[in-house]
Design a protein that fits this description.
By secondary structure, the protein is an alpha+beta fold. Helix 1 (82-91) packs antiparallel against helix 2 (96-110). A hairpin with a 3-residue loop joins strand 6 and strand 7. It has five helices and eleven strands. Residues 1-68 have low confidence and may be disordered.
Length: 226
C-alpha cells in the first residue's frame, strides 16, 4: 500500500470508532481526534489501571536485538506507563514486527484519560518519540466524551502499510476500555511512521490513512495482547 503524501505526515490521526454517537472532531495544533461508526467486538473486562511510577530512560541499544518470531502485542508489559514504552523500545527487534510491537506499547500509553501528565510526555518525547506536538496529542484525550478510557491490544489488529529496513509505516486498531470493560464499538485507529535509531525504534510522526477502519479485513490480529 502506498504511503500518504508528504504533506499529510505532520498529522497524527487518532480515530475512535463509535456506533451511537455523533461525529466529533477535536483539533489540537495539527492533530485530529475523531469519532465515527465502527463494527463490534465481543470481549470481557480490560486490564486494571496501572500505577507504575515513571522510571528513568533505558540505555540506548548498542546493536539490533535478536530477531523475534512475530508481533508481540504486550512487549512492554501490561502497564500503560512510560516504562512500558521504554521497555518495548529496548526489547523490540530491528524488524517490521518489532516496529509494530513498539508502536502498540506507545499507543497504549498515549491514548488514555485521565490524559498522561507532562512529565511523562517529556520523558517519552526525549527517548521514544519525535512527534513535534506530542504534548497536544496527549492533552487532547481529555476532550473525549468519556469519564475515563484507555486502549487494549486485545482483539486488536495491525497492518504494515510500507516498510524499509529502517522505516515502517503502519496502522493499528485498538479497542477502547471504558469503565473497566472493553467497549464493543469503540476503537483507536492510529497510523505511525516508525524509524530505527541508535535507541531502537522511535515514533517519527503520525500519518493520515483513510482506510484505517478496514483493518478487520486488511490487517492481522495482534497476538500476545494485553
Amino acid at each position: 500500500m502506498n504511503a500518504q503524501p508528504a504533506s499529510s505526515r505532520r498529522r497524527l490521526w487518532l480515530w475512535l470508532a463509535a456506533a451511537a454517537v455523533a461525529v466529533v472532531v477535536i483539533v489540537a495544533g495539527v492533530v485530529g481526534l475523531s469519532l465515527a461508526n465502527g463494527p463490534r467486538d465481543d470481549a470481557g473486562p480490560g486490564p486494571v489501571q496501572s500505577t507504575a511510577p515513571i522510571a528513568t530512560p533505558s540505555a540506548p541499544a548498542s546493536s539490533a536485538p535478536p530477531v523475534a518470531a512475530g508481533v508481540d502485542g504486550c512487549l512492554g508489559g501490561d502497564a500503560r506507563s512510560p516504562q512500558s514504552v521504554l521497555d518495548a523500545q529496548s526489547r523490540a527487534p530491528h524488524t517490521t514486527e518489532g516496529a509494530v510491537s513498539f508502536a502498540i506499547a506507545f499507543a497504549r500509553w498515549l491514548a488514555q484519560k485521565p490524559a498522561v501528565p507532562q512529565d511523562e510526555v517529556t520523558l517519552i518525547g526525549s527517548t521514544a518519540s519525535r512527534i513535534p506536538n506530542l504534548a497536544e496529542v496527549a492533552a487532547s484525550a481529555a476532550k473525549v466524551d468519556a469519564s475515563q478510557f484507555y486502549v487494549t491490544s486485545l482483539n486488536g489488529y495491525y497492518r504494515i502499510d510500507t516498510f524499509t529496513a529502517d522505516r515502517v509505516e503502519l496502522t493499528l486498531m485498538l479497542p477502547l476500555v471504558v469503565n473497566g470493560a472493553i467497549d464493543p464499538t469503540l476503537n483507536l485507529m492510529p497510523s505511525y511512521a516508525v524509524v530505527w535509531t541508535e535507541k531502537g525504534w522511535v515514533i517519527e510522526d503520525g500519518l493520515s490513512v483513510k482506510d484505517a477502519n478496514t483493518l478487520r479485513t486488511t490487517g492481522v490480529p495482534i497476538p500476545g495482547a494485553c
